[in-house]
Amino acid sequence: MEARKALKIPQKDFAKVLCVSSSFHSDVEKKRIKANDRLLKLVSMVFGIIEEWLKSGKGEMLHKSPDEKINRLVNIFNELPPDFQDFALSHLDRLLLESGDDIRLFIDW
Questions:
Q1: Residue 36 sits in the same domain as residue 78
Q2: Is 61 a domain residue?
Q3: Same domain, yes or no, for 47 and 71?
Q4: What residue ranges in 3-93 does DSSP mark as E strands?
Q5: What digits encode the pLDDT tens for the residues 79-91?
Q6: Does 49 share its domain with 71?
Q7: pLDDT digits (tens, 9 = 90+) for 55-68
Q8: Domain, as residue range, for 27
Q9: 7, 48, 80, 106: least CB-packed within 10 angstroms?
Q10: How far apart are the C-alpha atoms of 54 and 61, rounded to whole Å?
């Protein structure tokens, strides 16, 4: 319930997106029914809520947005000396090559 309220999503809409009945979702929120791992994984994937938080209530509730990750990456990169920046870039290039994906096609080098 805390996560749903933090996201400002009405209970019926939350349940509808998860393809469960409103009464089932209400029972889960009121702890009359325990949410199974499949439901927790679905909530995590759909709403960006960290699965471990759903299970334990500990740690961060939401996954960091891509913008937050990019800002963190840029800040760290800018703090590195130029030689280390080159080192980091070469490792990122290698990571992309070894990923086996054609991800480079989507990146403007």
A1: no
A2: no
A3: no
A4: none
A5: 999 999 999 888 8
A6: no
A7: 999 999 988 776 77
A8: 2-56
A9: 106
A10: 8
> Which strand (E) or helix (H) includes residue 2?
helix 2-6
Query: Residue type at 58?
Result: K
Same domain, 10 and 37: yes
Number of domains the chain is built from:
2
Residues 33 and 72 in one domain: no
**Torsion angles phi and psi, residue 62, rounded to 5:** -110, 145
Dihedral of the CA atoms 36, 41, 42, 47 (nearest 10)?
130
Lowest mean pLDDT, pick from 24-28, 29-33, 85-89, 92-96: 92-96
pTM comes to: 0.58
Backbone phi, then psi, for 49, in 5-degree steps?
-95, 135
Q: Which two tokens stand for residue 96?
A: 């992309």
